[in-house]
Amino acid sequence: MSLASFLLGLIIATGLNITAHAETQSAEPITGVITEIKPFRTFITIQKYNLETSGRALDKTFNARLEISFADGNKITLPEEGRRWPIANGQSQEINRTFEIPWAFVQSDSTKFTVSILRSGVTISPCEFSAEQLSQFNRGYICHTDASIQAEQGIAQEKIVRESVYVRLFTDRNSSPREIPKDAIALRNK
Questions:
Q1: Global confidence as pTM
Q2: Which of 125, 164, 171, 189 has the fewest CB atoms below 10 angstroms from its CB?
Q3: Which residue range forms the structural domain that includes residue 181?
């Protein structure tokens, strides 16, 4: 069973529809029956953003930012304070920012969140994730554009957009104490 939903699309200024794809990397869940789930701390780390190719001229620099949204309307914007990262083809932006998700966001041992890439020159529909069985295992997600669907739409190889965001979702229940960051930023209920 997949933990990630399919990213619906990417619309660039020329009006071409380009889709993106969300993938999950996780360990196998622990088997057994859970009768009661006690509260646990849940964290999300935005690890990095890659711009392999923008589908445009190699010497162009773009401005990018990320938004991570939760069901209650809470939103994380990176970088903070309305800034953007300058990024060009073939570059990565290391982020490694960890946020603690309030227990109120965890319903029935699951949570939902959305990752949006906002880069000058394109509008990318978000990757929507539904993480279930949080108490049983930690997981990693990759939100990336889907190059094969772009190729099927007849987009030339040199114009195919390839970019991605790496995310880790984990709990204190499934992590050693030294894995829990001391500098995690706590999200607040709205």
A1: 0.75
A2: 189
A3: 10-186
